[in-house]
Amino acid sequence: LRSTIPRSSPENTERDVTMKTAVVLLLAACVAVASATECDTLTRLKIKAQWSTAYSSGSDREHFAQALWRAVFAQAPEARTLFTRVGGDDTTSPKFIAHAERVLAGLDIAINMLDQPDALKAELDHLHKQHVERHIPDKYYTVFRNALTYVLPAQLGRCYDKEAWKACYNVIADAIRG
Amino acid sequence: VAFCVADECCSAEDRTRVQTQWRGLWKDTQSSKIKITFGRNILLKVVEEIPEVKALFKGVNIDNPLSGEFSAHSIRILNAIDMTINLLDDAESLGEALDHLADQHQAREGVKKAHFQSFSAKFLKALPAVIDDFDNMSWKACFTGITDKIASKLQA
């Protein structure tokens, strides 16, 4: 590329700098924060951005939800019994799809509120109330996190930041568990 | 399969338009702030029209509309709408999702069909302010169908 572009004019130099900056920013977005292990302000913004890609829309979202729950039940087949009322014996049933979409909608709110502390607290309190009465064993919160680590990379490719997700997922799950 | 309520039919083309126009609102990572503001404004407009509705939202701190509680509630409503719009292509799953929402509202004493009609009207009136090329007929057919189903188990 360099050999084909005359490098003498100021316009080209400027474009060159802009392109280099763009490349650096892209790399930074994917790689530089990969060492982050706390769910700090920047990590929260990253999770929000990655989630909005992964969450997607329409039938893509249905497939994402299905993959997530298949990954949950593959790790913990016995957990299906917790979902009998919402069609857990068949993850392709309309009843279960509706449930899976509700769960993702709740997760979507929690993730989107990561940078709005008051609303985040209110939403996590709400989710805590919905879950506490079901006496869900702690290990299932880890199972769900593992399931996310299986399906998110499929949606996000190499921009998926495992450590960042783990840290911020724990913030959300710890509050839901209470 | 078209999603029909009374004479209004949400056809395949209506669904595509609604989904595309709706998706355009959530491109940005700050979309949650749009959802909160939008949801809050609609709910407050409904209360303005039907003052008795205010008491129904006491538990989510409607007295302080900017509070975390009311913000979280506003986004829950918008996300439920988002979920149903995204399920428009899957009639059976949409039916299950709406049925669940109908149960959740049936369990709330004092919620009436008229409240949903007001919400639906305010919502459809506000959308053109945020959506370019807003397609009124498609939205009316699809969205009225959604809110009617959610209100279908209410007594009054």
From TrEMBL, chain A:
UniProt KW keywords: Disulfide bond, Heme, Iron, Metal-binding, Oxygen transport, Transport
PROSITE patterns: GLOBIN
Domain of life: Eukaryota
Ranges of residues in domain Globin: 38-178
Any GO MF annotation of the entry: oxygen binding
Family that this chain belongs to: Belongs to the globin family.
Protein name per the record: Extracellular globin
UniProt source species: Aulodrilus japonicus
